[in-house]
Specification:
The chain is mostly beta strands. It has three domains: 92 residues, Phage tail protein beta-alpha-beta fold; 110 residues, Immunoglobulin-like, CATH 2.60.40; 660 residues, Maltoporin, Chain A (Beta Barrel). It has a 22-stranded antiparallel barrel. β24 and β25 form a beta hairpin. The longest helix has 18 residues. It is globular, with a radius of gyration of 32 Å.
Length: 924
């Protein structure tokens, strides 16, 4: 018995000894701690001692998320790129600069050849020798020589022009950051991968990083003015992923006020409706942005209307951003590289919208090899193809999507819907090339939707456009880009719902633009941007014609319009003191509505009505009808209060010359865009905002609180019962007033953990007042009222739980206060015919909106060498089956008011989507 106890004790001691070796497998989740603290935690949890010199690890900041890895592997990840190596020694770990400790001498193999023979020498090395020599190479830190001895130096500092490329695809990496340790400054790469900075001759430790890429360390040996290119590699970790924040604008502390950026990785993980990832729906979960609901397109940003947002894809403006009235996104997420939303400080290069700019930049295409990706859902399919044209110099990318949803309609009991059809397609493509110091980019986009409701309505709309840009590097401190853009939005509608009012109508808007943009690096703390641009608008508002022999409508020619906007801008970013950056800009534009046009004048003091036309003026072709001068001032101040926080202030001034003829809260299918003209003035807004932003590295959290106030003049509002198809004289149904919007936005984001996501809450108000000297110049008797898009409360919770590297659960919870509505409050009779009397405008609200979505993403295996990778996404949209009201309407039936609630999606929608791509999980 005694011997058995001794044997058992020895066995237990053996297991303890085994558990306390560097081979022990454990979980490691630490963020923003020093290496010394990390080593102490490792010893506390595993019993493994780590020996090191304190000065060698003083600058290592530990952030790691790894499950089921050995202690040795965890330490190797933490010190990657530091020039240190980890070795096992007597059950402990030792950190040394350079090579690992050798536990045995390399194997020696005697030469087999005779002494008198002559043979080629075999220079192959053993694995141990290769490991030793590789650790001795400039190693872990590569040296880049910039310029030449005796070369040109501008002043006391050399001007450096760098470029960052993807080592796998050859594409430029934009918004990558270069940080110089000695100067505590750096630069950010632009859309062509270029960045400029100024350094005195000497040697500097530099780090280049970007989200999803391995951190690259370099020794910059600056000799004179010069250029250099670096290629960075995607981070491929076999187990748990770690996150590197490289984009300055992805850091909540450093980014511009009111700027939001969404990574495509986050978008791909979230639940979808009908299997299509929608970047615009995802943006509706961010603070200050509210979606108008299912089955609609359009977003309301900081209390603004849907038409106050500008959407660009590779500089092409998109005037209708949805397929099938909002159920599907207008953009294929698989080709998108960067998605930025400006809603606070809008850079001076942008103009023409009051609320926000949504800027989408697509991928340029793989410059090293052919690749393909796509996806199939129950109602849509998409495919993206990329290929080099000239390896490492030129590439193409092509995208195509189409729907096949009619099979669903045929299974619905309603006869009208069963005999209907709905579908869309879109195609896009790009060509990009580098020719010496020039970058050429061409892109086209075409989409079309068709909807037919039995024999009652037939509707088609389309977006198309193309852009061509030439970027030019003039010097190490000056870069420019010249672009031409053409775009068209059009629709046609045949409406026979009411036989006596059946009509057909076609509409088109053409957009032609030229612009030149320049970036000039004055010094390492001073950057100057400037440019010019000109945009020509041509609107064919179309002819409304009666449809069918029973239609009693009269033919109405809505006419044509055109206008030109010319602008120039200057923007200056200057770091006045360490941690205090001021960005100031001015944009000066002139808008001219142009002839040919017959303009009518109305009797002063009387309603603007065809009955009171007093005179007419004819403007010949290309003659300016009005001259609207529009100076805009943009200011932003970023004050870094400490290493983890900042305070930001911004002032933003905008003008808008193009608005939408739409008297609903969302964008209606037949909504027309209209130019400011002789009577209707451009809108102008002034917005101020202030916010506090902080990061909490140890918890992986970012948080912000931001408040804003916006005042808009000449805000177009429509009279009760306005009909935009009855007359070409839009000024007879439009009044202009003031809009006030204010609010506070809270945002908390967690990243780099198994459970990550964000929580946003927005309190906002938006009120409109249209007053005048007479009742016919007033709306709501001149009193202020909530705008159609006034949503006081909006709460969004977005969560991703990474169960394993291959399995992710995601969820979205959305709550919004019901939007305003005008209710009937009484019935009165005229000659025995009942009519409804309505409340003050927008005095009531429809029921609140609430929705929960869930999804499960399962990736294929993570083998490195495989020809095809695929994943399966299962989503449930509206999990609780809540019948959220899209609208509430009333009718008078038998002398009584009857109310109805209309819901677009009132049941859970289950969707399974299969996605694939050539290569492995990490392949782009």
């Amino acid at each position: 018995m005694k011997k058995l106890l001794i044997a058992g004790l020895l066995l237990m001691l053996g297991f303890v000894a085994l558990a306390q070796t560097p081979k022990q497998v454990s979980n490691f989740h630490y963020h923003g701690i020093t290496f010394s603290n990390f080593a102490a935690e490792v010893f506390k949890t595993t019993g493994v001692k780590i020996y090191y010199k304190a000065d060698l690890v003083a600058k290592i900041n530990v952030s790691i998320d790894a499950d089921s890895v050995t202690v040795t592997e965890a330490i190797a990840r933490v010190i990657a790129g530091s020039g240190l190596s980890v070795s096992e020694w007597e059950g402990a770990l030792v950190l040394l600069p350079g090579p690992e400790l050798l536990t045995q001498l390399p194997d020696y193999k005697a030469a087999q050849a005779p002494v008198d023979s002559v043979q080629a020498t075999d220079h192959s090395l053993t694995e141990t020798e290769e490991r030793y020599l590789s650790s001795k190479m400039a190693g872990s830190i590569k040296t880049i020589h910039v310029g030449s001895k005796g070369g040109k130096i501008t002043g006391s500092k050399a001007r450096l022009l760098g470029r960052v490329l993807d080592s796998e695809t050859g594409e430029p990496v934009f918004y990558a950051t270069l940080y110089v340790q000695e100067t505590r400054g750096g630069a950010v790469s632009d859309q062509n991968g270029y960045f400029s900075l100024m350094l005195a001759p000497g040697k500097y430790n530099a780090t280049i990083e970007f989200l999803g890429y391995q951190k690259s360390r370099y020794l910059l040996d600056v000799l004179s003015d010069g250029e250099f290119t670096v290629r960075i590699t995607k981070a491929i970790i076999q187990m748990k992923e770690f996150v590197v924040h490289g984009d300055r604008q992805s850091s909540i502390k450093a980014k511009d006020p009111g700027l939001d950026k969404i990574s495509m990785r986050a978008i791909k993980a979230l639940p979808t409706m009908m299997g299509e990832r929608d970047i615009l729906k995802v943006s509706g979960t961010l603070p200050g942005i509210v979606s108008t609901g299912e089955g609609t397109s359009g977003l309301n940003v900081r209390g603004g209307s849907s038409d106050q947002n500008a959407f660009y894809i590779n500089k092409i403006p998109v005037y209708n951003t949805a397929h099938l009235f909002g159920f599907f996104p207008a953009f294929n997420s698989d080709i998108i590289r960067d998605f930025s939303i400006y809603k606070g400080h809008i850079p001076a290069q942008y103009g023409g919208r009051l609320s926000s700019v949504f800027n989408i930049v697509t991928r340029q295409g793989n410059r090293r090899r052919f690749t393909m990706r796509g996806g199939v859902s129950p109602v849509t399919a998409n495919l993206v193809v990329e290929s080099p044209v000239v390896k490492d110099k030129a590439s193409i990318i092509l995208s195509a999507r189409s729907s096949y949803s009619d099979w669903i309609l045929t299974r619905i009991k309603d006869t009208d819907i069963r005999s209907s059809s709905a579908g869309f397609y879109d195609v896009s493509g790009g060509f990009n090339a580098d020719i010496r110091k020039s970058q050429i980019a061409a892109f086209f986009y075409k989409s079309q939707d068709h909807f037919r409701l039995s024999d009652l309505n037939d509707y088609t709309y389309s977006n198309s456009g193309m852009s061509f840009s030439v970027g030019q590097v003039f010097s190490n401190s000056l870069r420019g880009e010249f672009s031409v853009v053409a775009a068209e939005y059009s629709f046609s509608n045949k409406n026979t719902i009411e036989t006596s009012k059946a009509y057909s109508h076609a509409y088109a808007l053409n957009h032609y633009e030229f612009r030149a943009d320049f970036k000039h690096v004055i010094s390492d703390v001073h950057t100057f941007d400037y440019g010019i641009g000109s945009t020509l608008y041509k609107l064919r508002r179309g002819i409304v014609e009666p449809l069918g022999i029973n239609s009693v409508l009269k033919k109405v020619d809505l006419g044509n319009e055109q206008g030109i906007e010319n602008g120039i801008y200057f923007s200056d970013a200057y770091e006045m003191f360490s941690g205090i950056t001021l960005t100031g800009g001015v944009r000066f534009s002139v808008f001219n509505p142009l002839g040919p046009k017959m303009v009518y004048e109305y009797t002063e003091g009387l309603p603007v009505d065809p009955r009171y036309i007093s005179d007419s003026i004819f403007f010949a072709d290309n003659i300016a009808i009005r001259n609207y001068l529009q100076p805009d001032i943009r200011l932003a101040l970023n004050i870094e209060t400490d290493l983890d926080g900042s305070v930001k202030l911004a002032f933003n001034q905008m003008h808008q010359n193009l608005f939408m003829l739409n008297n609903t809260s969302s964008i209606a299918p037949d909504a027309q865009w209209k130019l400011a003209d002789y009577h209707i003035k451009p809108s102008q807004s002034n917005q101020v905002s202030a916010g506090v932003f902080r990061v909490f590295p140890q918890n992986g959290l970012e948080a912000s609180v931001e408040a804003y106030y916006k005042l808009t003049d000449n805000f177009p509002e429509f009279k009760d019962g306005a009909d935009f198809l009855a007359s070409p004289l839009v000024e007879t149904v439009v009044l202009q007033g003031k809009q006030k919007a204010w609010g506070i936005e809270w945002f908390v984001k967690r990243s780099g953990r198994k459970l990550e996501g964000w929580l946003s809450y927005t309190f906002s108000r938006s009120h409109v007042q249209v007053s005048g000297p007479n009742a016919w110049f007033q709306i709501n008797n001149g009193k202020s009222y909530p705008a159609n898009f006034d949503i006081p409360h909006a709460l969004n919770l977005v969560l991703n739980y990474h169960l394993t590297r291959r399995v992710t659960f995601s969820g979205v919870v959305t709550y919004q206060k019901g939007r305003p509505i005008t209710y009937p409050v009484a019935v009165y009779y005229v000659d025995g015919v009942p009519a409804m009397d309505y409340s003050e405008r927008n005095a009531y609200r429809i029921p609140d909106y609430f929705r929960t979505d869930l999804s499960l993403t399962v990736e294929g295996n993570l083998k490195k060498k495989k020809p095809l990778h695929s994943s399966l996404v299962i989503s449930v949209y509206n999990l609780t089956g809540r019948q959220n009201p899209y609208s509430v309407y009333f009718t008078s039936e038998n002398g009584r008011i009857t109310s109805y609630k209309y819901s677009v999606i009132g049941v859970p929608v289950l969707t399974a989507t299969w996605m694939f791509k050539l290569g492995n999980y990490a392949t782009e």
